[in-house]
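dude i think i finally got it to work??
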Amino acid sequence: MACAKVPLDELHVTEPFGPQGKERTLPALHPDRKEERCFLTYKPPPEDGTPVLVEQFLEHAQFISEDLEWLLALPHDKFWCQVVFDESLQRCLDSYLRHAPRGLDPSGLSSSPAVADMQRNIHRFVFMVFLRMATHKESKENFITPAVFAEIIYNNYLFDIPKILDLCVLFGKGNSQLLHKMIENIFTQQPSYYGDLNETLPSIIQVFDIILQKCGIQSENTGNSQPLKLNANKCLTAIAMPEEELADLVLYMCDTCTTIHSFLDTFPEACSTFKQHNFLNRLSSFYEMAVPDLEKAVKKRNFNKSLQEDMWRRISHSRKKMVEIAHLLLQHTCLQPILEGSENMVSYVEDLLQNFTAFLQEKRFLADYDEQFPIADDISLLQQAFPHLDDTRTSYLLQGVESSWESVGKKRSFPSSANHSAGAKSKTGRDLAVSQKEGAGVLEDREELRGVEAITDIPHKGDNGAVCTLTAGELESLLSSIRDLLPDLGEGFILACLEEYGYNSELVINNILEDKLSPSLDKLDKAMARPVKNELPSVLSTRSNVFDDDEFDVFNRDRLDMSRVWKGRRQGESVCATLHDKQHIEEQRARYQAYQIVVDEIPIANDPSGERDNAFGMDDYDDEYDDTYDTNQIGANDLDEEDELLNRRFSDYAHFRLFMMILCYFDQNEAVKKDHFLQDPAVLRERAEARRAAMQSRKGYRPPPASNVVGGPKGRGQTQEIILDRRRKEANKNRGANHSRRMMADRKRNKGMIPS
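look at this
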């Protein structure tokens, strides 16, 4: 049995051996303790999605998935015995790193969900195996001495530089932090890997020289002083080499650039090693010489459409990654130490300026770098961190950047960053996409326009082959210049001609006059009007709101009652003024006066028309009226009940009394004394509290002492009474709202529902 807290390299185990089961003691890491199991090598998913091949892949991948899952379930000592002494396992892991699909590789994952799920499982298991192999301490009981761990992974080739590079490419996206810890532990425990990386970099740089040599380009940094042979001019160029060889060359470049970028992005500590080999200058020189030649070969040659699009996509991806590699190297070797305020800040500033100065020779690379990572912003940061920066030198660099844009025929889609402040950072990166021109079969660069630029600017190809943007004003100028010479042509026809001939007005006029238009333009009506753009309705006309057409709807009303609108508290009004405003009562006075039944005098005014005032409801005198029974109760003998009559009489009388009281109240000039039929609530509360205290004293109840949990300021100590009050409040917290909240939380935590 294994002893606790003993490293695996010093651990010995006793196991039965032989047919008789005799026990023997062996080191924990011993070849005889390895399980006999054959791991299959990995094969990628089929690209065409043939059912037979898919079924074969699923069956083969299922075995690999089960074997890796079994490996991960082994205990610590068994796992390391299998990893160190099982060669089939290492062949399986190496085959996956070599043949697993990369980001731009075509794969059959989209053809079948089962294939995608199986590939995802194997991908996860392989990463977990490598992660466990890079961990020398799994727990307090299961660990390996760091020095022995370094020898195991290095001498048994469990990790090497090519494997680490492939791990960054395959698992860097989405697992960058975990992968960084893994690689950092490998390089920390075994510093010999830094030496291996230092020896590997010349081979990586040699890849660039091989690509240049295949393209028939002589590199200036090869260091070869031998004279060229007479038959050296017979080497193939990119535009003349076979199709398969060109495709392999593009794939080689794309894979190399992607791998280096993933490694530096995951493990920035390696940037210093790349800097020692002058990798940045070699990269910019390769970019300037190889990229234009390869782009020209892909554009000019007639390939299969799918192959051509794939090659262009890989070249664009390689361009982007090379620019990002340069930025990573500058950021981690120059910019970051400057921003952190290192001691040798002057040397870092000088190094950064020298790198920018070296870029001035590589016009195309400098323009593409400045488009993704504006150099003017980096210089602004330098001026803030290092005020003694030479302004003449920085101005020279910025002018060189502007000239690089002009020399490659590119047009900025934003103002020059040299006029911006340090905070105004413009990072509108270029999106290198693929567009297929109809009828020509030529791939062109395309700028991704955002915001207002997508409406006002039109991308077109200039005379030098570079993609430029045409503003709305420039387009109108071209239209007017052509219509001045050819007024009979419609604007729609002229726009179609401009679009066909790359917005070259001279070429359009020449072809129209010589009748050499393309067949597609001959079919169009020369008087065709300009297409009318459907203007979108305004937001105000399509809005819908619950306050539409109210008295404050400024969008539908021309005039508002501004007396109803004010800011803050309304001026000139207060609570007292509002309460003493009796205007509404005065308005009701005439209405209630009509209910008076005692009238001393009734003014009667004669009317010119002969009619008299009948305001009090009085009719003309009737001499034949019989008033014998006026004093009797009219309707007393009806079928109405006595209570109903009394209630009705009482209601009429109550209304009369109410109206008289209101009139008397407002006719009095002196203030009416307050009626204290409602007692003061404070007095009532005091009486209730006195009765409650008397009742509790009779029953012998002692109220709890006053609790004080606030205490004094922090850091000055608390009294013992405050500490006891706080403890009592914490213990009895479940008696208030959220009953048993603390008890239930402790119960969930004890059952493992809440992490401790």
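The chain has 28 helices and six strands.
im so relieved honestly
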